[in-house]
């Protein structure tokens, strides 16, 4: 079994999808030690409890520095013997403390065809710029914002009558297939 930690900041839908895949036996070699969140009141916390796993909540603003925050997170990761970190809607840049400890062992999924539309509101950016297609990218995490080496991408069309909500739903459907496939392939 490979021990992973999942980091999320919001709704937790990708986290939920991964947990459901594990429960179905599709990712049988993966053990999620805990959900880590920087948003103690986010919906992902409820999902963590529903999946009966430990949820570590942190309030980054209560730390005197990013390094102090990440050292606290790192201590928990090491206590749980975590081998990989999987970001699933985690809205903070990973700092040097975690990057050094987990070099080449942090994955992220992003709702665009990177290198286009990094950062926040990638779906809105693609829609507002009149793109004909967009998609989702799984990549390794580095010190930049969505700049790590691309592992896999999936595309989907953007229709003229798309709203941000309809396009987000189409991208999420891609992510729910793509992320587990990459996790299965990469995390050994």
TrEMBL record:
Q: Identify a single GO molecular function assigned to this protein.
A: phosphoribosylglycinamide formyltransferase activity
Looking at the UniProt record, the site noted as Raises pKa of active site His sits at 146
Q: What is its EC number?
A: 2.1.2.2
Q: Which reaction does it catalyse?
A: N(1)-(5-phospho-beta-D-ribosyl)glycinamide + (6R)-10-formyltetrahydrofolate = N(2)-formyl-N(1)-(5-phospho-beta-D-ribosyl)glycinamide + (6S)-5,6,7,8-tetrahydrofolate + H(+)
From which domain of life does this come? Bacteria
Q: Known Pfam families for this protein?
A: Formyl_trans_N (PF00551)
Does Nuclease show up as a keyword for this record?
no
Arranged from A to Z, the UniProt key words for this protein are:
Purine biosynthesis, Transferase
Q: Where does N(1)-(5-phospho-beta-D-ribosyl)glycinamide bind?
A: 12-14
SUPFAM superfamilies associated with the record: Formyltransferase (SSF53328)
Q: Provide the residue positions that the database annotates as binding (6R)-10-formyltetrahydrofolate.
A: 66, 91-94, 108
Q: In which pathway does it act?
A: Purine metabolism; IMP biosynthesis via de novo pathway; N(2)-formyl-N(1)-(5-phospho-D-ribosyl)glycinamide from N(1)-(5-phospho-D-ribosyl)glycinamide (10-formyl THF route): step 1/1
- Catalytic site: 110 (proton donor)
Domain annotation Formyl transferase N-terminal: ranges: 3-183
Q: What class of enzyme is it?
A: transferase
Q: Which PANTHER family match?
A: PHOSPHORIBOSYLGLYCINAMIDE FORMYLTRANSFERASE (PTHR43369:SF2)
What family is this? Belongs to the GART family.
This chain's function reads: Catalyzes the transfer of a formyl group from 10-formyltetrahydrofolate to 5-phospho-ribosyl-glycinamide (GAR), producing 5-phospho-ribosyl-N-formylglycinamide (FGAR) and tetrahydrofolate.
Q: What is this protein called?
A: Phosphoribosylglycinamide formyltransferase
Gene (UniProt)? purN
């Amino acid at each position: 079994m490979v021990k992973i930690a999942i980091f999320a900041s919001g709704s937790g839908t990708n986290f939920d999808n991964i947990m459901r895949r594990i429960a179905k036996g599709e990712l049988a070699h993966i053990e999620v030690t805990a959900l880590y969140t920087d948003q103690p009141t986010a919906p992902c916390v409820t999902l963590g409890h529903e999946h009966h796993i430990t949820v570590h909540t942190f309030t980054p603003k209560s730390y005197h520095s990013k390094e102090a925050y990440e050292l606290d997170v790192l201590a928990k990761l090491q206590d749980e013997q975590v081998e990989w970190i999987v970001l699933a809607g985690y809205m903070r840049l990973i700092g040097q403390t975690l990057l050094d400890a987990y070099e080449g062992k942090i994955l992220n999924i992003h709702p665009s065809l990177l290198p286009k539309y990094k950062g926040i509101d990638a779906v809105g950016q693609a829609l507002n710029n009149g793109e004909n297609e967009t998609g989702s990218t799984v990549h390794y995490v580095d010190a930049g914002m969505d700049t790590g080496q691309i592992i896999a991408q999936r595309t989907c069309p953007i229709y003229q009558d798309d709203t941000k909500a309809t396009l987000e739903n189409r991208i999420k459907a891609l992510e729910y297939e793509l992320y587990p496939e990459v996790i299965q392939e990469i995390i050994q």
